[in-house]
Amino acid sequence: MGYEKQIAAYPGQLQGYLCDNHLDGVELNVYDTKPYPDDYRETAIGVHLKYWPMWLDFWQHNGKQPETNKLAASYAVQASNNEEWLDIICQNLRVALSYEPEYLVWHVSDCNLEEMFTRKYVHTDEEVIDATIAIVNEIVGMLPEHTYLLFENLWWPGLTFRKPCLAEKLLVGVKFSHVGFMLDTGHLMNSNWELTSEAEGIKFVMDTVRSLGEIGKYIKGMHLNCSLSGNFQRAHLGPMPKVNDLGELINFVSNLDQHRPFQKESLKPLLELVQPEYLNHELFFNTMEHMSGLLRQQQALL
Questions:
Q1: CA 86: distance to chain centroid?
Q2: Quick one: average pLDDT of 291-297?
Q3: Given a cut of 70, is residue 5 above it in pLDDT?
Q4: Does the structure show a pLDDT above 80 at 34?
């Protein structure tokens, strides 16, 4: 989305911006294998690792993917085989660790272009979880013992938090002791098309967390945002339309996954239930000034 470029427009001023907005730092998106020109070690409390939305077919067939059109190719894994992809993942991880973050975020999901519209998924949640465990276990030797590896939920196949047994399977299967979850409230809300209000959304998130039982204690971080996209999802359910470029696809996903601030309902009960160590206001914004206004809206409800 170019957010890092906007932050970079504040050379030497990011600390002041964070202070003015009552923030301790940022969660930095690191989607490349090269570092940013600026040093974010003092401000990057967390780092979000690169996410490949469509990767499971690649992994299962060691590089052979059924998608062949140009748009699908830009959306999928850019590698020739599993070994090459693992090397890219490791390069991305090295850059992320260079910022000395307290935690890393890893998306656990797989969805191809057609499935985004039809919702007729080829792979199950468990298949995505199993493959994620296998991949992560290939690279955990690079992780410092003191750094959290937090798995983030989405509404596509993978970690959705709707099946507590699979969330537990992920934690148990990964051979690294400092693991946990990053709960994205908007992503969780996207999994329920019946939600029509903030109050219903908050209740649904809290009910889902309670259903996790003891596993819920492993929610170490929260991406806080509101997404009530049930009507949009219903209106766009069906065969995949002609999508000409990645920009159109991003626009579709942005309407589905809204990343809006909560505006009315108190968030205190949710925070008291989850008690996250890290709270990230993950919101769509146009300018840093715009983001300040959105932050004030949501912070007033904490």
A1: 20
A2: 97
A3: no
A4: yes
